[in-house]
Structure formats: C-alpha cells, structure tokens
Design brief:
The complex is a heterodimer.
Chain A lengths: L3 H24 L2 H22 L5 H19 L2 H4 L8 H6 L8 H15 L6 H12 L4 H7 L4 H18 L11 H20 L10 H17 L4 H14 L6 E2 L2 E2 L12 H11 L10 H18 L8 H14 L3 H15 L1 H8 L9 H12 L3 H14 L3 H12 L5
Antiparallel strand pairs in A: 1-2
Chain B lengths: L1 E8 L11 H20 L4 E7 L7 E6 L2 E6 L4 H4 L3 E6 L3 H8 L6 E6 L6
Antiparallel strand pairs in B: 1-5, 1-6, 2-5, 3-4
The chains are: A mainly alpha, B alpha+beta.
Chain lengths: 415, 118
Amino acid sequence: MGDASGDLEQVVREEWGRLVALLLAQFRRLDLVEDALGDAVEAASRTWPADGVPANPPAWLMTAARRRVLDKLRTEDVARRKEPLLLLDAEQHQEGVRTMADAGSLVEDDVLRLVLMCAHPALAPEAASALSLRLVLGVPTADIARLFLVPEPTMAARITRAKKRIVGAGIPFAVPDAGVLPERLEIVAQTAYLTFTAGYSPGTGPDLLRADQSGEAIRLVRVVLGLRPDEPALVALLALMLLQHSRRDARVGDGRLVLLADQDRTRWHHDEIAEATRLLARPHLAGPLTPLAASYVLQARIAAEHATAPSAEETRWDRVVGLYDVLLRVAPTPSARLARAVAVAEHHGPVAGLDALEGLEVPQSHRPAAVRAELLSRAGDVDAARAAYDQAIAACRNEVETAFLVAQRDALPAG
Amino acid sequence: MKYLVLLIGDGAEKPWSEQTEEEQGAAMARFGAFGDACDARDGVRILAGEALSGPRDATVMRTTDGRVHLTDGPYAEVIEGMGGFYLLEAPDLDVVVELLRVLPPYDIQIHPTVDVEL
C-alpha cells in the first residue's frame, strides 16, 4: 500500500480548484460545495489508508462530494431552496451538466471561471485574495487566517461574507467578453500580488518572511498562466515573484534580517532565478504593455539585476537607477521613489541618495526614516542618523526589523 | 436577475447645467446608445427608467406612531445628486457593468432586487 495520506494531500493540492469548479457548474451552490468537498477529503483520509488509494483519486473525491451535496439538498427545508443560486453564463446553461470525463478545455474554462469569480473587482481585495486561496488552491481556512494574521473565526466569517456577496450581488461564474477579459486578468494578477506581498514583507508580527504564503501566491499565478499562458501581466508577475521568493532562505539568519548586500548568494534558489530570466525574455513582454504589466516587468528587471549580479559589489547600479527612472514614469509610487533613492545612493554616494529622498513620505511606514538613517550614517552625520533611527524604530511594527534597526542604531559611534 | 441602477452622482461627468449644448447632445446620445445596447443583448431588458427632477422637489415620508410626517428634500446625501434610475433585467453583474459603460461616466449604484412573496 502506498502512502495514502501523502497521495491524498497531493490530489487535494493539485485538483481542489478543478473539483470546486465542476461542482459549482453542476450545483450552483457556493454555500455547499466547499463543505461537501471538505467532507469528501475527510472521508478519503479515513478510507484510503484502509482500502487503498482508488484508481482515479479525483473522480473518487468528486463522487463523494457530489453525494454530499445531494444529501444536503434532499434534507434542506423548502425555504432554503428559494435562495438565489450562483449565476452561470448563457453558454454553460446550454452545455448543461458535465462530468469529469468531459474534454479538458471545458474543465479548464470552469477553472478560469472560478479564478475570475474569486478575484472579481466587486469584491474587496483582501476578500478576493482569501477566497482565491480557499476555493482555487484549497488552502485550509486556518492556514489562511494564520497567513493574514487574523483569528480563524474572523477569516472564516470573511470568506463566508465574500461567498454571500458573490451570490447576492450577482457576480457570475463566467468568463466575460474578450474585450473585458484582459482587464479582469489584471485584477487576478493584483489579487495574487496582494497575497504574495502579505507574505513577503508583512507590516506586523513576528515572522519576517512567510514563505508559505508567497509560495501559494506563486501557485495561484501558475494555475492562471496554465489557462492563459501569454497574458503579459501574469508572465511578468510570475518572474517578479520568483525573483523575490528565490531569496527567502538568505533573508533571515538566526531570526535576524539579512540585507540584500550581506546575503549568502549561494543560498538563493538559482533554478527560480533562471526560470524568471527565461520568462522576462519572452517576446510578448517587449511589445506595448498596460501600465500594470509594464510596472511588473520593470520591477522584475530590477530584481533580476540583483539576482544575476555575482556579488553585491558587482551590482550594475547604473542600470538599476535607469530602470527605476522608467518605473517612476509608469507608476510613480512612494515606495518606488524610496527604492530609487537607495539605488542612487549606491551609484552616486549617500549624499545623492539623501537628495533623492528629499520630501518623500510613505504613510505608516518606517522605511523612509530607516533608509535616511542608514544614508546619514554613511555620510558621517551620526547625530542625525541616530534621530532618524529613533523615528524609524518608533514607526516599525515588525519585530525582526525593529531588532535590526535597534542594533544599527546602537552600533553608531558615540557622538 | 433584476437590478435597480441608481445614477447617484455626476462622477467624472460635467454637471448637466454646466454642459454646452453639444455636450448635452452627446450625453443624450449615450443614453440612446445604452438603450440600443440593452435591446441588442440577450437576456437584458430595461423594465423602467426615468430621469429625476432636482433634489429640492423630493419629499421624504416617515411614519411615527401611525402619523405620517413629510419633509422636503432627499433622505440622505447619497441621494442628493441622483439624476435618474433604471430597473434592468439582466443575467448578471458583469453584463450590467458592461452595458453601463455606454452611459456617461456617472457614479452609479447597482442594487439587485429580491422577490418578496406576500
């Protein structure tokens, strides 16, 4: 007998979204499908180790889940049956009920419908992100709650509210017209990036880096890219995420933050860097792009400059500054200006960096003060550096980063 | 599904009273185009649609202890700028949003109706 629980975990990981999509297309009951599938997985965890893993594991889960839904529908009182159903598009109504044996393209369309429904612009971004993790990837609610730093009941309520809103507002389980689809796929990309950044650089809490969440965000983009392989925003976003994610093992040492320049580059995941480099070389990223796709491409190219430099000293800061100049024209955000100031300091020295920081504020962020402190320290202005560190420490909400800033401040020469 | 579509504010559109005659003509043409787009779309029907007179003509009716009180003006700020409404029959929210892009760029609230059984 094989490793039944390992097999089950893998099937759930790979097939969850497809099973949810098929069940939704058949029953249109967003409130029942997820629990039914959860029950089916639970039943599998009991029976597979004893009876052996079935020949077609996803079909087994589908049959079990379908039975659960039918049981629920049978015992439901009449009043509940009047509840509005999830809306399908006209094409699906004509196709009628489909099964696992159907042609792959139909099933893939259902997964695309699911992805677009979860990341619908009429949902709040955090709700869309949580719902995508739950319904498309099958991440347990308890894990989503942990990743978003909220108690599990809060996350469960957020997901339930989002599902009710989908049905109540008439958000369809549908692929929109070709004219609107690219715009909607960009919202999917933004949802995935929100999921990713929540893990990559959390504002609060003890974990500096929650690589799990970044890994799930990457998985979400891969699912969508599997359906729409050439969508520029998604290709560029995957490259950007892979490059940032590739440094996960080198960013923290002994619970302390390790800056890019001090990281052990042999601990970077070079296979991921190579994949990102290949993605960035794809020809359709060279053509005219939407502002969002262009900003992902530029951020990824900047990350690639760092990832492919043999050492911190050999970083091509001239190119990095040039890329930031273009990025600021496409997406003039305060965080891009801040990052550009850091690059300018590396290229032209701390005084030029401080000039580039002039007047920059990022609401509720300790980072401008932290960067200013570092550059003042390099420029030899110890008193001003200490004051800037104090300011940054007061604003910082992350324990690991606060410890880092305190250590930097205390290492300043007595002034 | 039925949707009440409230045109609640001028949004990105210049207020009607500040528009030139040509601009007003262009806005009216968009209402015509919206009607045509709805007609041409499967499963979509405009069940009702009217322009509203100014907020000073509105009356709010409240009933307390069986007594009716009338006050002038709209109930709340959100309704202050409401210029019109539609009651639309449409398959889903995506179709409604797609069709409403044909209208001038007002701020719009889209609110599904529910069937109430008596």
